[in-house]
Each structure stands twice: as structure tokens, then as C-alpha cells.
Design brief:
The chain has about 130 residues and is mainly β. It is about 5% helix and about 45% strand.
């Protein structure tokens, strides 16, 4: 897929000012998944696949609660501000800049998948006991 098509798919999620539900990395960072609130029934999952480089900055140096996993949904301050996709300097890779309010990420990956999924198909840490 070309950069413009992927950017359109991401923009169609209407992520601006929507709550970011979680960011996960799996398979030694090869896959990074971003969950974005949509409504009571669905959420958006953006998967960054075959990742070459992933970096991020959080608010850990200035927040009052030391561990995010101790927070409840209402205490989280992660909201979609900007997601920009462009071509990477590496052949066949995309470069993505994400501004998630109190978290900024940069990802270089080979593929990006955007899916609307059932909200009850994901288990979020604040829903556990």
C-alpha cells in the first residue's frame, strides 16, 4: 500500500482527541499495536508489523502515580493528537510519528494494518480484577 492510502485509513478512525486504550509491543518489538477508543462496542486497532525501529517518550518523569498499571481508565491521559505516515529512508519501510498527548512514538515498519474490532475482544488492564 502507498503512504497516502495508509494515512487515509488511519485518518478514517477519527483518532483526534480519542482515548488511547493501550500500546503493546510483541515478539521482541516486531509488532506494535495501538488501541484507540471508538464507541461502547468497538475500538480501532492499528498494528505496525515487521518493525525495524521503535522509540517512545512518556511522562514517567513528571506524573504523580509512578506506575501506569496502577491507574484506572479515568486517570489515563493518553489521547490521539497526530499520527503521520511517510516513507522511511529504508527501502520498503514506513516511518510513523505518533503524538498521543503524554506519549510520543516513532516507528519504522514494513506494514501497517488498521482494523475496527469488538471492544469486548480485548482485555484492558483496568478491566482486570
Amino acid at each position: 500500500m502507498n503512504v497516502d492510502t495508509i494515512q487515509e485509513l488511519i485518518d478514517k478512525t477519527d483518532y483526534w482527541d480519542m482515548r488511547i486504550l493501550d500500546v503493546t509491543a510483541s515478539y521482541f518489538g516486531d509488532e506494535v499495536k495501538l488501541l484507540i477508543e471508538n464507541d461502547e462496542v468497538t475500538c480501532w486497532r492499528i498494528s505496525f508489523l515487521s518493525c525495524y525501529k521503535v522509540s517512545y517518550n512518556t511522562d514517567a518523569d513528571r506524573r504523580k502515580i509512578s506506575k501506569v498499571k496502577s491507574m484506572r481508565k479515568s486517570q489515563l491521559g493518553y489521547y490521539g493528537q497526530n499520527i503521520t505516515v511517510c516513507k522511511s529512508n529504508k527501502d520498503n519501510f514506513y516511518k510513523v510519528d505518533l503524538d498521543l498527548s503524554i506519549m510520543e512514538m516513532q516507528i519504522e515498519c514494513q506494514d501497517i494494518l488498521v482494523e475496527q474490532i469488538a471492544r469486548n475482544s480485548v482485555e484492558l488492564f483496568w478491566d482486570k480484577n
